[in-house]
């Protein structure tokens, strides 16, 4: 790589409420070690949102003291669904409800406004890329990994030889919509879980906040009559409180989170027989939980990830580092990789 001070790339992580930005120099060193956020204003439409990303870029450059001419490229990540080139779905998305977003070329618009190359990834892929490089360091280009990021939905990505696998239409690594075996995961009288995408029994229908709200919590409240979460309305509010109950060892919460861990373990088992990666990374709200609960959950995931003995010796199951910064950092890494030609 070039001398550290010769040039930089900027990573921009676009979210429903905030943009987070980071700067990565030519040697691969991040110049900020914390969140650098500005409002995203995506609900006000594309023109306003692109302007906010420019503000985020200028803000992080001012913070780091890097002059604009030193920026060689920009990495951008956004929630999906979007194409591999950063064109938002023609039907919009949860974060992109203004009709102006339908079929909007987000990457191209930012590139036109900055005059710089913009390299796009969805937010799950960007976080997966950062998890991979943070874990393997210099060996990243010889390693492979699969990441599952549990949030409102279930995102993630597949990385091979240090690069995100995007697929022909940009939809590779949509781990949340992989169907998983439900036998032994669900209780005998538990209804098959449905996903917002229209599938039944995919990983996201269990291992996501939406899965808790829509499928798991309503069922388990019937098994624990009188539980105080039943008094909280709407159920979505109760779902957001569940992690705190899990940290305190609440039996209902632990049953739900064990089902989520089983679902992720089965998802990783499928990955083991499909890509046989060097590492399986887990990210999401559980990473931000109390250490004892986080380790309990990760151990449950390991328990239900069925690997052959040879695979167990070769691979690891680990947490995504610096999850709140992983999107922007992964976006920056993608931009750096493009510039140096790896």
Automatic annotation (TrEMBL):
Q: Which PROSITE patterns match?
A: ROK
Which residues does UniProt call coiled coil?
Answer: none
One Pfam match: ROK
Source species, domain of life: Bacteria
InterPro entries the record matches: ATPase_NBD (IPR043129), ROK (IPR000600), ROK_cs (IPR049874)
Q: Which PANTHER family match?
A: BIFUNCTIONAL UDP-N-ACETYLGLUCOSAMINE 2-EPIMERASE_N-ACETYLMANNOSAMINE KINASE (PTHR18964:SF149), ROK (REPRESSOR, ORF, KINASE) FAMILY (PTHR18964)
Protein family: Belongs to the ROK (NagC/XylR) family.
Protein known as: ROK family protein
Q: What organism does the UniProt record list as the source?
A: Microbispora oryzae
């Amino acid at each position: 790589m070039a001398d550290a001070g010769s040039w930089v790339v900027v990573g921009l992580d676009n979210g429903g409420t905030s943009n987070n930005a980071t700067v990565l120099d030519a040697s691969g060193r991040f110049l900020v070690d914390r969140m650098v956020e500005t409002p995203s204003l995506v609900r006000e439409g594309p023109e306003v949102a692109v302007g906010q990303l420019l503000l985020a870029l200028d803000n992080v450059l001012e913070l780091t003291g890097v002059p604009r001419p030193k920026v060689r490229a920009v990495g951008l990540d956004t929630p999906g669904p979007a194409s591999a080139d950063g064109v938002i779905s023609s039907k919009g998305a949860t974060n992109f409800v203004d009709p102006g977003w339908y079929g909007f070329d987000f990457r191209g618009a930012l590139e036109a406004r900055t005059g710089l190359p913009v390299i796009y990834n969805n937010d799950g892929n960007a976080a997966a890329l950062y998890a991979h490089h943070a874990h393997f360091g210099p060996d990243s280009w010889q390693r492979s990994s699969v990441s599952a990021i549990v949030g409102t939905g279930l995102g993630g990505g597949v990385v091979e030889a240090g690069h995100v696998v995007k697929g022909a239409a940009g939809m590779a690594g949509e781990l949340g919509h992989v169907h998983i075996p439900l036998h032994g995961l669900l209780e005998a009288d538990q209804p098959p879980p449905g996903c917002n995408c229209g599938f039944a029994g995919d990983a996201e229908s269990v291992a996501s906040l939406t899965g808790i709200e829509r499928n798991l919590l309503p069922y388990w409240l019937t098994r624990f009559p009188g539980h105080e979460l039943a008094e909280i309305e709407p159920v979505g509010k109760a779902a957001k409180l569940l992690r705190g109950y899990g940290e305190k060892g609440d039996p209902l919460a632990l049953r739900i989170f064990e089902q989520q861990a089983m679902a992720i373990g089965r998802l990783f088992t499928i990955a083991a027989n499909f890509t046989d990666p060097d590492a399986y990374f887990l990210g999401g709200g559980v990473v931000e939980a109390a250490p004892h609960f986080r380790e309990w959950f990760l151990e449950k995931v390991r328990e239900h990830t069925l690997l052959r003995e040879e695979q167990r010796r070769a691979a690891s199951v680990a947490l995504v580092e610096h999850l709140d910064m992983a999107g922007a950092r992964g976006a920056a890494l993608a931009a750096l990789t493009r510039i140096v030609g790896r």
